[in-house]
Write a structure and sequence with these properties.
Length: about 575
């Protein structure tokens, strides 16, 4: 039986006894309707071999929306009565595409964001079921919100925010770097909340059609924050700093900021539900994510796993680097002395971070005798805008230089065994793993890369519009415009230098890091006398199926155990561990 991922439920703004959530269904995730008054749930979706994990409930609580996608993530929105009944397509004449946002107004207006091979589009569905397209644009984008009265839409494109009326006409062009949590849900003229990056931190702004942008000058944060409105117009802020989270409640009218008490660790998500019912998902390195609510009401079957009692220690280490100190979360076995065989578990992104949060890979590697270094290299979030934007020396190479600096620090302190250090990562972390193996071959004895970018140019050509837009920004152009930058940052460029054993994992339907460029990298290694392990799984960039996740994790931990001298797994990881 799968333990469902811990995510926040959606609750209808105007019918707070109705909601929906992602729950466990045999070996996968499915959507359930939640009757909060009765404490009961009804299963909404049933997709064997796929699962479902994206859904929302209309503000009035009459209908549920869920995204019917394939392993590659392409799909269509479907609508089902909250009490049950047949599904109907939200956009009858629209081809399957990647989900790029859903927003619904109290009057029944809904806006849908999609991405396909042509780019980003936004579609409007009126309360009577009529639909029309209000925006088409090249590249990526995301629909953020629709105003409570249904008159305005807000989208993010690149790092800027655009406000549109329902005809698609831009009424606000707000240059970035900016992000938006959406419109204030209370009555009155639509008021938009914005998060803005400055040279020394992040601040809040508001925007209205008549007054434009106004700074909330009394409230600033030194590193990234995410925000959401409460039903009465206050703002809940989750602030990530140095791998851990703080939570604040802001009253913009009274210029008041209150710190909400949360235990040390990471708040993965938080929302103030109707009735001032605070919902948050909290975790730390030894505690699996769990949903906590101030009212005590939780969906039936919500996981509540206790902290793991494992012989492991967690410490924070800071290493000097060219752009500042590099933060590492260092986990080690408590039942054996150093130096330990050490795995650098490289996070994805690039604009993400490693946190004091539960990760089954950390637990399993530590239980297998490894120390685990989770490095928040340059480009990571949680350390301010200068650190996040430290790409002036190129893409990839500054990040692997940070990994090397931390490795030297751990070896110098007698914590890491220099003859038994390896790398593992998923997505962008897999990319950095391969890049480090090729540019620093003398440092690493093994590397496992799951769903990686192995060839920067090939991944750009075959990727989605959103990822091509990101690459164009990071590399300051396309491969045709900046061939040297792409070559300098591509693992394929350094394949001749690779010495260590390599495990590659490719998803057959992966549109973010397409499988063909991973296969070609494996072929290039074989042509040079290497014998890489290539595991191909029938999934997209990730999987909602517990057994598929467990298969990949088993392969990674077993591979590292075999080549770095830890304890090799003799069997398959139980799907419940992931």
């Amino acid at each position: 039986m799968l333990v469902a991922p811990c995510t926040l439920p959606s609750i209808a703004e105007l019918a707070p006894d109705r909601g929906c959530f992602v729950g466990a269904a045999e070996d996968r995730c499915e959507i359930f309707a939640w009757d909060l008054a009765r404490g009961t749930a009804r299963r909404v979706t049933d997709r064997p071999g796929l699962g479902t994990d994206v859904a929302d409930v209309e503000p009035g609580g009459e209908f549920l929306w869920w995204f019917d996608d394939d392993p590659a993530g392409r799909g269509t929105w479907r609508i089902q009565p909250w009490a049950g009944g047949p599904d109907t397509p939200a956009l009858a004449d629209t081809a399957p595409a990647l989900n790029a946002g859903l927003a619904m107004a109290a009057d029944g207006t809904a806006a849908i964001g999609l991405i396909d091979e042509r780019g980003f589009s936004v579609h409007l569905r009126t309360p009577d079921g009529q639909t029309h397209t209000v925006l088409t644009a090249a590249g990526g984008g995301e629909l953020i919100d629709v105003s409570p009265d249904g008159s305005l839409l807000v989208v993010e494109q690149e790092t800027a925010v655009r406000v549109l009326d329902c005809s698609g006409t831009a009424v606000g062009e707000l240059p970035g770097p900016l992000w938006s949590p959406g419109f204030r849900p209370t009555a009155g003229p639509p008021l938009l909340l914005l998060l803005a990056e400055t040279d020394d931190g992040y601040g809040l702004w508001t925007w209205t059609r008549n007054e434009g942008q106004r700074s909330v000058d009394w409230c600033r944060f030194e590193s990234e924050a995410s925000a959401s409105w409460t039903s009465d117009g206050r703002v809940l802020v989750r602030h990530d700093r140095n791998g851990r989270s703080d939570l604040f409640l802001l009253d913009l009218q009274r210029r008041r900021r209150v710190t909400l008490p949360v235990p040390s660790g990471t708040v993965l998500d938080a929302r103030m539900q109707p009735g001032d019912d605070l919902h948050l998902v909290r975790t730390d390195t030894t505690t699996p994510p769990a949903l906590w609510t101030s009212s005590g009401r939780r969906p039936p079957g919500a996981p509540d796993l206790p902290p793991l009692e494992l012989p492991m220690t967690l410490g924070d280490r800071w290493t000097a680097g060219p752009d500042g100190r590099i933060h590492t979360l260092f986990t080690a076995p408590a039942d054996r002395p150093p130096p330990w065989p050490t795995v650098f578990l490289v996070h994805g992104g690039p604009f993400q971070q490693d946190r004091d949060a539960y990760d089954p890979a950390v637990v399993l590697l530590t239980a297998s005798g490894f120390a685990v270094a989770r490095v928040n290299y340059r480009g990571s979030t949680g350390y301010g805008p200068a650190w996040r934007n430290a790409f002036t020396a190129g893409v990839g190479l500054p990040q692997v230089a940070d990994l090397a600096a931390v490795r030297a620090d751990l070896v110098g302190e007698g914590l890491a065994d220099p003859a038994r250090t390896g790398l593992a990562g998923w997505s962008w972390g897999g990319y950095l793993t391969l890049l480090a193996l090729g540019t620093q071959p003398e440092m690493w004895q093994a590397g496992a890369a799951a769903y990686p970018v192995a060839d920067s140019v090939a991944a750009f050509r075959a990727g989605t519009p959103a990822l091509r837009s990101l690459d164009t920004r990071l590399f300051r152009g396309t491969p045709d415009e900046q061939p040297h930058r792409y070559a300098q940052a591509s693992p394929m460029t350094y394949v001749d230098a690779v010495r260590a054993p390599v495990l590659l994992v490719a998803g057959s339907s992966d549109v973010r890091c397409p499988p063909e460029q991973v296969r070609r990298y494996a072929q290039a290694l074989r042509a040079r006398g290497h014998t890489p392990e290539l595991l191909e799984v029938d999934t997209g960039h990730d999987s909602r199926l517990a057994e598929e996740q467990a298969t990949v994790l088993t392969a990674v931990v077993s591979f590292l155990g075999a080549h770095l001298g830890g304890t090799r797994l003799d069997g398959h990881i139980d799907a419940r561990a992931v």
